[in-house]
Amino acid sequence: MTLQRILTLLVVAVCLSQPALAQINPFRGNGGTPLNRDDIAALTDATNRLLDQPQLVAGASETWSNPQSGVSGTVTAGSTVKRHGMACRTLREDRAQPNPNRSTTLTLFNTKDGWKIG
Q1: CA–CA distances in Å: residue 114 to residues 44, 75, 104, 109
Q2: pLDDT tens digits, residue range 88-110?
Q3: Helices and strands (DSSP H and E) totals, the chain
Q4: Which residues pair with 56 in a beta bridge?
Q5: Which residue blocks in the chain are alpha helix, DSSP H?
């Protein structure tokens, strides 16, 4: 096998492995500086504030920030949907950070144990 073929296969393998990282933790990956523990705590608090709103409507949002890291963002409620018999909601997380801005869309399932990423 030629060196060029080996390099091509390596590049393809690396590119295909990136979606798996997003499935493990949608807030990490190669799209800039990863979120640290305090960033994730601030994001989680904003998400919980949003999901705890009694009359949550699509388009409602909560902001979050971590002054120590300089990372901030907004969590915005999307539409409600039913999947596998469960109430679900899409959420979009838009993040402003030094390197670069990111946006992630998630579907959360409302289970008996609380909201879970689906």
Answers
A1: 13, 18, 21, 8
A2: 899 999 988 766 678 888 888 88
A3: 2, 5
A4: none
A5: 3-24, 37-51
